[in-house]
Amino acid sequence: MRIIKKVSQMQNLAKVLHGKGKSMGFVPTMGALHEGHLSLMRRARKENDVVIVSIFVNPTQFGPAEDCRRYPRNLKKDAELCNKIGVGYIFAPSVNEMYPDGYSTYINIEGNFTEVLEGKSRPGHFRGVATVVAKLFNIIQPDRAYFGQKDYQQLLLVKKMVEDLNIPLKIISCPTIRESDGLAMSSRNVYLGAEERKSALILNQVLESTRKSLKYRIADARRMEDRIIKIIKKEPKVKIDYVEIRDWKDLRPVKIARKGCVILVAVWIGKTRLIDNVII
Amino acid sequence: MRIIKKVSQMQNLAKVLHGKGKSMGFVPTMGALHEGHLSLMRRARKENDVVIVSIFVNPTQFGPAEDCRRYPRNLKKDAELCNKIGVGYIFAPSVNEMYPDGYSTYINIEGNFTEVLEGKSRPGHFRGVATVVAKLFNIIQPDRAYFGQKDYQQLLLVKKMVEDLNIPLKIISCPTIRESDGLAMSSRNVYLGAEERKSALILNQVLESTRKSLKYRIADARRMEDRIIKIIKKEPKVKIDYVEIRDWKDLRPVKIARKGCVILVAVWIGKTRLIDNVII
User: Fold this and answer.
1) Are residues A20 and A134 in the same domain?
2) Does A182 map to a domain?
3) Cβ of A7 and B166 within 8 Å?
4) Is A124 a residue whose pLDDT tops 80?
């Protein structure tokens, strides 16, 4: 396995691999790898000749008051994990490699879709995500790119961008991986203290019980949201950002909660922001 | 020569050509082809195995009050011209192929650079240009793309986008082609009546004489702009939009007109808007 830090080097390598007819699977990450990331890599390994993982904490997707600086970084440990799975290359550029002085091109997915949920709570977040993902796609030129359903709105947004801009690759969406007690894997989970970690379990518990209760019946979406909010509020350490039931394809609001909906939740636990979701 | 109308078909073809190791030169146009376009195609023919020309009047780069609808269209004549030069493929998609219902992804080059000159006079114009050019690059995946210096700000903008987004191709800039009397070739020249056509000559005349006068000396940029404005104003049919002297690399304002500057002019003649420029 090789670690590549220069854009030009990565771009040349991609050309060589394409020239040899190798199929390329790409897993974009911000490092601090956990089982969720590893599951994407294993899937990519199965479906492609070569797997490339990017590790880049992208400053343009963090707000000024967000955790870009303290976001966990450990390239050595990440590289060991990648190596075990059979990743061929890690692309780990510096911020200056990706955004040199005078950088000024940004991609916006306009309209409702990016202005709700995460887009509303984190203004500019998706502009940063779309831009860095498009750059990484152009640098690496993969045949397939793997994204987790944990960041559900991001997954839909990347799919939309790829479709709109005719980027020639396939987005593969992969299920959320959870700890044995149900907490969705996230690099931010390390921020949680022991008590906080315990209260975070409420997210998966309430999403899972709601999913089960909606499997064979329908319900008023607003009432169902209120019910979820009420249950989460019983955990004193958890502060709700949003709880919303929306259409799973395009996140448009729905009146009735039923099959084909997605329930999306964002909360603060202390200084840590967690998101989770479940598709019904 | 083949005319291709579907995005998916063009994308598949590009893959096949790449697989065969063919180098691909791309000339994006809005049709109504003239000698300026043909010079780009000839250069592309020389430097690549296969030449692909796109013909697409891109609605997103026109303002609501602009000439998108009446913009000249003649695919049959354009195809004949392309064929003579040895173009391999024309990509001529419909508006709906390029912007299907629900389309919402746009590329912005932020900052000064797009807010001056054409960007100021035509709000949203460069957002439309950047977006359609990125789409065409993704669909056609050329090794080289050819742009004329006539649309100088557009040329710089496309170069900037390619650099910022790491799009893996080379932008080749080609000199402005002029009629024998000096008028810069433009698809919009056909709008001009005989008298208008004559008064349009003032643009090249004043740019050319200024270029000569600045070849071996320097001058105050504001004074030089005023001098140009004065000369153009002698033509009663010509209404000035802007006359500006700027740095040729990034269009930043300059105090001194000298080598390394570009003089950019936009005027209205009747209902027709013309632009021209000269690099000193």
Assistant:
1) yes
2) no
3) yes
4) yes
For B179-218, the pLDDT digits (tens) are 999 999 999 999 999 999 999 999 999 999 999 999 889 9
Task: Note whether A198 and A170 are same-domain residues.
Answer: no
Let me know if residue A19 belongs to a domain.
yes
| ipTM value > 0.90 | yes
Q: How confident is the model at residue A215 (pLDDT cuts 50, 70, 90)?
A: confident
Q: What is the DSSP string of chain A?
A: -EEE--HHHHHHHHHHHHHTT--EEEEEE-SS--HHHHHHHHHHHHH-SEEEEEE---GGGS-TTSSTTTS---HHHHHHHHHHHT--EEE---HHHHS-TT--EEEEE-SHHHHSHHHHHSTTHHHHHHHHHHHHHHHH--SEEEEETTSHHHHHHHHHHHHHTT-SSEEEEEPPPB-TTSPBP-GGGGG--HHHHHHTHHHHHHHHHHHHHTSS--EEHHHHHHHHHHHHHTSTTEEEEEEEEEETTT--B-SEE-TTEEEEEEEEETTEEEEEEEE-
Task: Indicate the number of domains in chain A.
Answer: 2
B74 and B131 in a common domain: yes
Domain that holds residue B234: 187-279
Please tell me whether residues A49 and A145 are part of one structural domain.
yes
What's B49's domain CATH number?
A: 3.40.50.620
CA-nearest residue of chain B to A103? B164
Is A137 inside any structural domain? yes
Q: What is the pLDDT of residue B258?
A: 94
**Cβ within 8 Å, pair B105-A130:** yes
B7 closest CB neighbour out of A11, A107, A166: A166
